[in-house]
Design brief:
The complex is a heterodimer of chains A (about 475) and B (about 550).
Chain A lengths: L1 E7 L8 H12 L4 E8 L16 E8 L19 H11 L7 H8 L2 H4 L2 H6 L1 H15 L4 H19 L8 E4 L3 H13 L4 E5 L3 H11 L6 H20 L2 E4 L2 H9 L7 E3 L20 E5 L8 H14 L4 E5 L6 H13 L6 E5 L4 H4 L4 E4 L8 H8 L4 E4 L4 H6 L10 E4 L4 H13 L1 H18 L2 H15 L2
Parallel strand pairs in A: 1-2, 1-4, 2-3, 4-5, 5-6, 6-7, 8-9, 8-11, 9-10, 11-12, 12-13
Helix pairs in contact in A: 2-3, 6-7, 8-10, 9-10, 12-17, 15-18
Chain B lengths: L1 H12 L3 H34 L5 H39 L2 H27 L6 H26 L3 H24 L8 H28 L14 H26 L5 E3 L3 E3 L1 H12 L2 H27 L4 H44 L3 H29 L3 H23 L8 H23 L1 H7 L10 H13 L5 H26 L6 H22 L5
Antiparallel strand pairs in B: 1-2
Classes of the chains: A alpha/beta (about 475), B mainly alpha (about 550).
């Protein structure tokens, strides 16, 4: 069996939750042949594999957002050859209309004989007329030049992607929606091969947050881009044979946005619990840990502010920031400045990229103040190491720490609101001050991980998915 | 090119009759300067020389030199004409003035180098004296330079200097022709032809020098950016072909007719058809009103609308206001085109009607008049074709313009060749039909294009740019490697040009004056052979020798 993993902005070039997960999955399913199709923002010499590629990976293909440059920028004129029903569906696509018939749409736009190459299509009179109609319908108060160029750039990479040929495989597995999920949808229709969709976070919502904050998209175009990502996510949910999420909250979201109840499944992450069963080292001082990359989404600043409050009661406590800091140097500098302003230079230890097992032995409480998360592995790892956890109420954190309604295992930590240093500090202090509570939480965490979040469970689930989809 | 019109609009805003008249005059000179220069001066020289030419072959030699130099210099410069106009306009817009000065030197050197090569190759081994060859070569290179100067001066809208230069040059030609022909100096056995060509050349050198000095004073010269313009070849290479095809198309009927029974042979050096060429020259004179009207009306009224339309697009206006500006622009464009066509059609008919009297007054044979009547209609179509091509270039519809000019070249060649065997009554029909068809097709293309103008404006813009200047950069390097390193001569010329001109004239005239007259018999023999070969035939057709 050959499985083609379609990854966007992650494996094997960028390390992170999704990439590690993919690498784990491939390594453990060593009887299956894997091919990787990786979509990257840009392709340059600096890109290198961040993982030891397992031997059962037979091919890695990469496409970058600049890939349209392989076409002639001054294309020969091409008159689209489309039937009425194809035109209707392309029209729906350009309007992000969810009643679109994806099969007809994909079968039309993937054929160069019908729409020309991407550049030809964007230059065609057909595309022009569609854009014009769309403008007259909905946007006629806006400047036309900007409208035209926004739509062109929106569809430039998209069209390139649509006509891309993927490696041959028996099953296509997208590990997010967005471009990756859309490619899966196309393969499902074009190659008639099963399509499995796994979503760690909620791609469309992450994009939405990014677009709202971004300065390069303006005015109504923010909404247009956001709608676009929700629209293609909807397509992927509809056409995937199985839609997997990591936890209930995301499953609910997927159902709300078009996924079929019968094919929507929750498969949580899993870890090797034995690795994290480390011996406790008792230290005089209190040690607070945070396993994270120093990037804005982790909201390290809130963490530092709450730690400052903690040091009011425990003035010799340490905060360990465990993980790489080179991804966003600007933000890292800001954090260093904040540490200095809060005069925490002696109390905060930034480790860089290290093996976390060494630190698990002496950490009294783990903290995660992210503003957005999927199902963080660090929570699972800490739980396996019996360390109580304070996390923000994002993604699957609450489900991990408090458990599902049906369980009888109690809390393994405390959930607090995002961006609230005082509440975070209070939660940390409560745990630090009550050794019994800390111990109980640690035990609860261990029990929950052991029961639901072991690596072998998720690996088995995926093996079953693959087997059942490829008969 | 678009810039000229806007400057003119300013002239017209001051609603004074004299101002208006001068505007028309200027634009006529800009558009038709070369024609006025050559045809009028030539005719005056002709009238002056008519009584002085001992025999017809000298007149033919002179005419041959003029026709060949004029046509082939125009063809030589034509590819660069549109290309450089565009380049200069771009650089003016980008405010990169140094590059304009640099490109002037580059283009001039390139044109003169190729021109010199052509002169050497063409005149090598030809059966005329060396002194005449040198003079003819000098004449050719002078015209070539003037074409190059004209590109730069019309781009910076300096019409006054063009007017002054041409007027002084023509005056100088006529005066020196009178002086030389009446003097007893005997130069060589092409005495009169040589003297008249010398006078004409000197006049052109005066014109050229005035233009040249103006350019030197206007632009910065650093010399280091001489070949930067070659980079824009990759972007606008199609303009090279539009210019070349149109200009070759303009003359291709002449070339074909030269080899018909109207053609004569002069010392095995020039072959041309005086009757046809003369008719064509006159026919082209009749379209000066069109070109003037076009420049003034279309470029002023239309250009304001044109600017508004593109301004709105750039300023991110709504589609509705773009559409309104488009309708407005298209309306003015067609109004002006039809207006120009109307006026020109009436004028051409008038010219055709009065041509009988005028030509018999000038003593031209009937055939000249007949050819003139049909070629005047051809020139009419040709003028409209030119308008259409220019409008296409305004709208960046270079592919359409290319197709139109290529069609003109092919059509004119085909139909002229087709009518060649139909007899002398059909001379000129090929040109007329070729021009008519290509005008009609080009006009249709223009209508199709205009209908979808907003689509083309937006969709023709490339989504991204590809860097493909590599080949052209290599060419620039190659040229730089072999060019003369120091170009101080230009600065030197700027300061001491009067001295240099006087010195050159003294040197040339002393060489010529002290040269022994060549052997008489050679000339007589030539004359005899010519008479036997081709002259006989020609004289049968046109006993009056135009």
């Amino acid at each position: 069996m050959i499985v083609c993993i379609i990854a966007e902005g992650s494996y094997p070039y960028i390390s992170g939750g999704v990439s590690s997960w993919v690498n784990q999955l491939i390594k453990d399913l060593d009887e299956i042949e894997f091919k990787i199709f990786s979509i990257m923002p840009e392709m340059d010499e600096k890109l290198s594999y961040k993982y030891n590629i397992p031997e059962n990976v037979s091919k890695i293909e990469t496409i970058s957002l600049q890939d349209y440059k392989k076409y002639n920028p001054k294309p020969k004129n091409f008159d689209t050859k489309l039937s009425t029903i194809e035109r209707v569906n392309i029209k729906k696509f350009l309007r992000f209309d969810k009643t679109i018939n994806w099969d007809i749409f994909v079968n039309a736009v993937t054929r160069k004989s019908k729409v020309g190459n991407p550049i030809q299509f964007l230059h065609s009179e057909y595309f022009w007329n569609n854009i014009k109609d769309l403008y007259i319908e909905n946007y006629d108060e806006e400047g036309f030049n900007e409208f035209f160029w926004t739509l062109r750039s929106m569809f430039l990479f998209f069209m390139t992607l649509i006509q891309e040929t993927l490696p041959k495989a028996d099953l296509y597995h997208s590990v997010s929606t967005g471009y990756s999920g859309f490619l899966g949808l196309i393969q499902r229709i074009k190659k008639q091969k099963p399509f499995l969709l796994t979503e760690h976070g909620i791609y469309a919502r992450e994009r939405e947050e990014e677009i709202i904050q971004s300065s390069w998209v303006k005015g109504i175009y923010k909404k247009m881009w956001i709608d676009f990502f929700y629209f293609i996510a909807n397509g992927a949910y509809k056409k995937a044979d199985i839609v997997v999420s990591l936890f209930e909250r995301n499953k609910k979201f997927q159902l709300e946005h078009g996924a079929d109840y019968d094919k929507t499944v929750v498969v949580p992450n899993g870890i090797d619990i034995e690795i994290y069963n480390v011996n406790k080292i008792n230290t005089e001082k209190k040690n607070i840990g945070a396993i994270l990359r120093i990037v804005p989404i982790k909201d390290v600043k809130t963490l530092l502010r709450s730690f400052k409050i903690v040091t009011d009661d425990f003035n010799d406590a340490n905060l360990f920031l465990i993980g790489p800091y080179d991804e966003n140097p600007k933000y890292y500098k800001e954090c260093l400045k904040l540490i200095k302003n809060l005069s925490l230079e002696d109390r905060v230890i930034i480790t860089g990229k290290v093996d976390i097992e060494k630190y698990l032995g002496f950490i009294d409480v783990m903290v995660l103040t992210s503003i957005s998360e999927g199902q963080p592995l660090v929570i699972l790892e800490s739980m396996a190491a019996k360390i109580p956890f304070v996390a923000t109420d994002v993604g699957g954190c609450k489900e991990l720490l408090y458990g599902k309604d049906s369980e009888n295992i109690k809390k393994a930590g405390v959930i607090v609101k995002p961006v609230s240093p005082v509440k975070t500090a209070t939660a940390i202090l409560n745990i630090l001050k009550d050794d019994n509570l800390a111990k109980r939480m640690g035990e609860n965490g261990y029990k929950r991980v052991q029961r639901y979040y072991q690596k072998k469970y998720f690996i088995n689930k995926y093996k079953n998915f693959y087997d059942s989809l490829v008969k | 090119m678009a810039g000229i019109g806007f400057e003119l609009k300013k002239l017209f805003d001051e609603d004074m009759y004299t101002k208006r008249a001068s505007a028309y005059l200027y634009s006529a000179v800009v558009a038709a300067g070369p024609w006025l220069l050559t045809v009028i001066t030539l005719n005056i020289l002709n009238i002056l020389a008519d009584n002085l030419f001992i025999d017809i072959i000298q007149k033919d030699l002179f005419m041959g030199t003029i026709i060949y130099s004029f046509i082939f210099s125009q063809i030589l410069v034509s590819p660069l004409q549109m290309m450089m106009t565009r380049y200069i306009a771009d650089k003016l817009y980008e405010k990169k003035y140094k590059l304009i000065g640099g490109s002037f030197i580059g283009v001039l050197k390139m044109a003169l180098f190729i021109g010199l090569l052509l002169v050497i190759i063409y005149y090598y081994g030809k059966n005329i004296s060396l002194s005449y060859k040198i003079l003819a070569g000098l004449f050719f290179l002078t015209i070539t330079s003037i074409w190059v100067f004209m590109i730069y001066l019309s781009a910076i809208k300096n019409y006054k200097i063009i007017l002054i230069a041409f007027f002084s040059g023509s005056l100088f030609s006529i005066i020196s022709a009178v002086g030389l022909l009446n003097s007893s100096i005997y130069i060589n056995f092409y005495n009169e032809a040589f003297k008249i060509l010398l006078a004409f050349t000197m006049g052109l050198i005066v014109t050229g020098s005035i233009l040249f000095l103006k350019i030197l004073k206007t632009f910065h010269f650093t010399g280091s950016y001489s070949y930067d313009f070659i980079k824009s070849f990759s972007k606008y290479s199609i303009l090279l072909f539009i210019g070349l095809f149109y200009t070759v198309g303009l003359w291709i009927d002449d070339f074909i007719i030269w080899f018909s029974n109207l053609g004569i042979d002069v010392f095995n050096t020039y072959r041309f058809a005086p009757i046809y060429d003369n008719a064509i020259f006159w026919a082209y004179l009749t379209i000066i009103p069109t070109i003037t009207l076009f420049l003034v009306n279309i470029e002023t009224e239309f250009y304001v609308k044109y600017k508004k339309y593109y301004g709105l697009i750039k300023k991110n206006a709504t589609l509705e206001s773009i559409k309104n500006a488009e309708d407005d622009m298209v309306r003015v464009l067609f109004k002006e085109i039809f207006y120009t066509i109307e006026i020109q059609a009436i004028l051409t008919i008038v010219f055709i009607i009065i041509s009988g009297q005028v030509f018999s007054f000038l003593g031209y044979p009937v055939l000249v008049r007949e050819i003139f009547q049909i070629t005047a209609l051809g020139a009419l179509c040709n003028a409209f074709l030119l308008i259409v091509i220019l409008v296409m270039l305004y709208f960046e519809a270079r592919l359409f313009a290319f197709f139109s000019s290529a069609l003109f070249l092919i059509g004119n060649s085909f139909w002229t060749y087709y009518f060649l065997n139909k007899g002398e009554n059909y001379f000129g029909f090929g040109y007329f039909i070729g021009a008519l068809i290509s005008f009609l097709v080009a006009f249709l293309l223009l209508i199709l294009f205009i209908k979808n103008i907003t689509f083309y404006t937006f969709s023709s813009q490339p989504i991204f740019l590809k860097n493909k200047n590599l080949i052209w950069n290599k060419l620039i390097k190659l040229i730089k490697k072999y060019q003369f390193k120091k170009i101080r001569i230009l600065n030197y010329f700027d300061k001491n040009f009067v001295k240099i001109i006087i010195l050159t004239i003294i040197v040339i005239s002393s060489i010529l004056m002290f040269k022994k007259p060549e052997k008489e018999y050679g000339y007589k023999q030539d004359k005899k052979i010519k008479k036997e070969n081709s002259l006989e035939g020609r004289e049968k057709i046109s006993p009056d020798n135009y």
